[in-house]
């Protein structure tokens, strides 16, 4: 009885989820979680090798997955991703916008091309996904879009200026798109992780800074990627999350912000 109730409330069986950036650490964990909840998952990204490894793991665990290559900042590539998904599965019911990059260049030295690279990858990719997939979902009678923000969207951090600006924009953009699509039964929310062992964090944080961050996180540790799955399933579920749109959920261990 309890299993049936939870499956009805949170289960994603019969739905297709597309995870843009599913070849990364956090995107991969979300792809795994959505597949475990019953969705057929399209792992979309640039790195075919990592994508196929992720799909193999999903299938080995009993799920249904497929890799589709995509350039998240090119409109035509996102349109092709949607078209291929629809051809194979009939529809795209869930979209997770998880493509992202970071940069830790000191403020006075940030070059224009680096600023543009971060804003394009983190914000433009989110816009393209929401616009293209949101239009499809609206014509199909509804769906769920989950954007990925960051704890730095509203908390001060140094040395990640472009990243923080892009993620703050993602949160604001999510609220506006959620209002736009609400009457079409397309829910749009944003998941804001704290510090997780994602590739971009390993590249820009020294051991000393990692120690400082953990000292400002009440739980005194980094998050584990699988700890994002519960919030993601809630926001993507058409039953459990049916009246949730335009909201932000922070999974950050209580992080309060700091200069690093």
Q: What is the residue-averaged pLDDT?
A: 91
Radius of gyration: 18 Å
Full CATH superfamily name: NAD(P)-binding Rossmann-like Domain
Largest sheet: 7 strands, parallel
In the sheet with the most strands, the strands line up as 3-2-1-4-5-6-7
Quaternary form: single chain
CATH class: Alpha Beta
Continuous helix count: 9
Q: How much strand?
A: 15-25%
Q: What is the third-level CATH name, the topology?
A: Rossmann fold
User: Which stretches of 5+ consecutive residues score pLDDT under 50?
Assistant: none
| Secondary-structure content class | alpha/beta
**Residue share in helix:** 40-55%
How many strands appear in the DSSP assignment? 7
How would you spell out the order of helices and strands? HEHEHEHEHEHEHHHE
Q: Number of folding domains?
A: 1
User: What sort of overall outline do the alpha carbons produce when their principal axes are compared?
Assistant: globular
Q: What this model shows, in words?
A:
There is one protein chain. With 260 residues, the chain is an alpha/beta fold. It has one domain: NAD(P)-binding Rossmann-like Domain (Rossmann fold, 3-Layer(aba) Sandwich). It is built from 9 helices and 7 strands; from the N terminus they run H-E-H-E-H-E-H-E-H-E-H-E-H-H-H-E. The chain has helices at residues 2-10, 25-36, 48-60, 75-89, 112-140, 161-181, 199-204, 207-215, 229-236; strands spanning 16-20, 40-45, 64-69, 94-97, 143-148, 186-193, 248-251. It has a 7-stranded parallel β-sheet with strand order 3-2-1-4-5-6-7, sandwiched between helices. The longest helix has 29 residues, at 112-140. It is globular. It starts with a helix and ends in a 9-residue tail after the last strand. 45% of the residues are buried.
């Amino acid at each position: 009885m309890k299993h049936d109730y939870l499956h009805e409330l949170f289960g994603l069986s019969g739905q297709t989820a597309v995870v843009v950036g599913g070849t990364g650490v956090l995107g991969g964990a979300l792809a795994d979680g959505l597949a475990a909840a019953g969705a057929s998952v399209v792992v979309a990204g640039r790195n075919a090798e990592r994508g196929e490894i992720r799909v193999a793991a999903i299938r080995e665990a009993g799920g249904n997955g497929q890799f589709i290559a995509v350039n998240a900042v090119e409109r035509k590539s996102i349109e092709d991703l949607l078209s291929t998904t629809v051809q194979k599965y009939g529809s795209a019911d869930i979209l997770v916008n998880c493509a992202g990059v970071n940069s830790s260049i000191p403020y006075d030295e940030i070059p224009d091309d680096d600023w543009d690279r971060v804003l394009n990858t983190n914000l433009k990719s989110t816009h393209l996904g929401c616009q293209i997939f949101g239009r499809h979902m609206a014509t199909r009678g509804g769906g769920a879009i989950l954007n990925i923000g960051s704890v730095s969207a509203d908390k001060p951090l140094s040395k990640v200026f472009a990243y923080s600006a892009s993620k703050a924009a993602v949160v604001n953009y999510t609220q506006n798109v959620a209002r736009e699509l609400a009457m079409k039964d397309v829910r749009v929310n944003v998941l804001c992780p704290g510090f997780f062992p994602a590739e971009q964090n390993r590249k820009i944080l020294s051991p000393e800074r990692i120690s400082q961050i953990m000292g400002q996180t009440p739980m005194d540790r980094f998050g584990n990627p699988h700890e994002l799955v519960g919030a993601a399933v809630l926001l993507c579920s058409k039953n459990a999350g049916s009246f949730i749109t335009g909201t932000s959920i922070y999974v950050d261990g209580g992080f309060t912000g700091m200069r690093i």
